[in-house]
Amino acid sequence: MQEYNFSVGGVSLAATVFPSLVYVSVYCMSDRQ
Which spans are transmembrane here (predicted)? Predict the structure, then answer.
């Protein structure tokens, strides 16, 4: 059960961090132009 919780936590963490990384990269690219 602990492995299941770890995988769910990893997925939710990735779902939270990945969009913010994409937003920051897009913001930086648009800021340079």
Answer: 6-29
